[in-house]
Write a structure and sequence with these properties.
Blueprint (H helix, E strand, L loop, with lengths): L1 E6 L6 E6 L6 H5 L7 E6 L1 H17 L3 E6 L9 H13 L7 E6 L1 H13 L5 E6 L2 H7 L4 E6 L2 E8 L4 E4 L9 H17 L2 H9 L11 H21 L14 H10 L7 H18 L5 H13 L12 H8 L5 E2 L2 E2 L1 E6 L2 E5 L4 H11 L2
Parallel strand pairs: 2-9, 3-4, 3-5, 5-6, 6-9
Antiparallel strand pairs: 1-2, 7-8, 10-11, 12-13
Helix pairs in contact: 3-4, 4-5, 5-6, 5-8, 6-7, 6-8, 6-10, 9-10, 9-12, 10-11, 10-13, 12-13
C-alpha cells in the first residue's frame, strides 16, 4: 500500500505520502526537504510510548538532532497554555528558524504543533505524521492549525501548510475502536460532499465499525480517496474563501455539541456524525435532497457504530446560541453545508433558527 498525493498549492505545495510501515523511514522521507538538523518531536505520552522510539531512531539515522515534547491527549489540552509549553521547550533548546516541528499523533497534536510552528520565530518547518484515522484523512491535510477558546472550538489559529504529510496506515492497528470510528465520520463526510463512489463503496462493505473489519484493499481506498478529496478541495481554495467551506459538513452543529459538552463527553468524530444527521435532516425539511438519501446517510453512520442522536443533557437553545460565535458565521448569519445528493452539497446561510432548534429537539428524542 503506497501512494503519493500532491497538494497543489500555488505557494506552498507539498505531498501526502501514504505507505505501510513508513514511520520507520521517517528520517529518509524528510531528508530530501533540506531541513535544519534540529527537530522538535511533539507527541502525547501514549503515542510516544508505542511509536516514539521508532520515529527517533529513524530521524537520528538520517542525521537529525531530536528533542521531545509531550502534550497530554485530548481536546481539553488544546489551548494556549499547551502552546506556551511548546515555546518554552523551543527556547530552552535554542531552536532556530531552520528547525522543524514534527507532530506525531492525532488531530489535536497536529493542530497544536502546526500552530506553534506557524508562530515560533514567525514560522518554522512543520511535518505531519498522523497516527489516527481522523488525522490521516482530515486534520493533517490543508494547513488549518490552532487551539480552542473556552467559548468555541478552533477560534484561535492560522493557516500554515506542512512540508510533508507522512501516513503509515499500519499504526492504525493500535488505535482504539472509538477513535477509529471517529475517523470514519470524516470519511463518510467526503462521500457526501465530494465522492459519491466512495460513499457507495462504504455502503457495500459488510462491516465498518472496527479496523479489524476492514480489508487492506478497502482501507487503502478509504485513506487514499479521502486524502485525494481533501487535497482537491484545498488546492482549489486554500483559505476557505468559498469552496473549502464544504469540508465543514456536519461540523456546524457538531462543534457546538463538542463545546457544550466540554470536549470530553463526545469526541470530534462523534460530534461530526451527529452534525451530519442534523444537516441531512435540515436539508430534507428544506426539500434540498430526497428523504431516501438522508436514510442512506444515516444508515451508513449507524453501520460505522457512530451516534446519531444528541445527548438529552444539552439545551437546544444553547446549541443555537453557540452557532452564533462559530468561525463560519458571516455577517451575523450561520453558514450551513447542506447536501443536495450523495456527492454534492451547497453552502447557505438561509436556515431559520427555528428550524435548527426543531431539528435539534427531534434528535434528542
Amino acid at each position: 500500500m503506497s501512494s503519493i498525493i500532491p497538494v497543489k498549492l500555488p505557494q506552498n505545495p507539498y505531498n501526502i505520502a501514504i505507505a505501510s510501515n513508513s514511520l520507520a523511514q521517517l528520517g529518509a522521507h524528510i531528508s530530501p526537504l533540506n531541513l535544519g538538523k534540529k527537530v522538535l518531536l511533539v507527541s502525547s505520552p501514549e503515542i510516544f510510548d508505542i511509536y516514539g522510539e521508532m520515529a527517533i531512531n529513524s530521524l537520528k539515522q538520517a542525521g537529525f538532532e531530536v528533542i521531545n515534547h509531550f502534550i497530554p491527549a485530548g481536546e481539553t489540552y488544546k489551548n494556549l497554555d499547551s502552546i506556551a509549553q511548546i515555546y518554552d521547550t523551543a527556547v530552552a533548546q535554542r531552536l532556530e528558524r531552520s528547525s522543524t516541528f514534527i507532530a506525531l499523533g492525532g488531530g489535536v497534536i497536529g493542530d497544536m504543533t502546526g500552530f506553534a510552528a506557524a508562530t515560533w520565530l514567525r514560522g518554522v518547518n512543520f511535518i505531519q505524521v498522523p497516527t489516527t484515522l481522523l488525522a490521516m484523512v482530515d486534520a493533517s491535510i490543508g494547513g488549518k492549525t490552532g487551539v480552542n477558546h473556552p467559548q468555541g472550538k478552533n477560534l484561535i489559529g492560522a493557516f500554515y501548510q506542512p512540508r510533508l504529510v507522512l501516513i503509515d496506515p499500519s499504526v492504525l492497528k493500535t488505535l482504539p475502536v472509538r477513535e477509529f470510528r471517529a475517523g470514519m465520520a470524516e470519511v463518510i463526510k467526503y462521500g457526501i460532499i465530494w465522492d459519491g463512489d466512495l460513499f457507495t463503496q462504504l455502503e457495500a462493505a459488510e462491516k465498518l465499525a472496527d479496523f479489524s473489519d476492514i480489508s487492506e484493499t478497502l482501507l487503502q481506498i478509504i485513506i487514499t480517496r479521502s486524502c485525494q478529496a481533501k487535497a482537491d478541495v484545498v488546492s482549489k481554495d486554500e483559505k476557505e474563501s468559498n469552496l473549502r467551506a464544504i469540508l465543514n459538513y456536519g461540523h456546524t452543529i457538531g462543534h457546538a455539541i463538542e463545546s457544550l459538552t466540554g470536549y470530553s463527553l463526545i469526541n470530534h468524530g462523534e460530534a461530526v456524525a451527529i452534525g451530519m444527521v442534523a444537516a441531512g435532516k435540515i436539508a430534507t425539511k428544506l426539500n434540498l435532497w430526497p428523504s431516501e438519501a438522508e436514510i442512506r446517510q444515516n444508515n451508513l453512520i449507524q453501520k460505522t457504530g457512530l451516534p446519531t442522536t444528541i445527548p438529552s443533557s444539552i439545551n437546544s437553545s444553547e446549541i443555537v446560541d453557540a452557532l452564533k460565535i462559530d468561525k463560519k458565521v458571516k455577517s451575523g448569519k450561520v453558514r450551513f453545508i447542506l447536501p443536495t445528493q450523495i456527492g454534492q452539497v451547497i453552502i447557505t446561510d438561509e436556515v431559520p433558527s427555528e428550524l435548527i432548534f426543531n431539528v435539534v429537539e427531534e434528535l434528542k428524542r
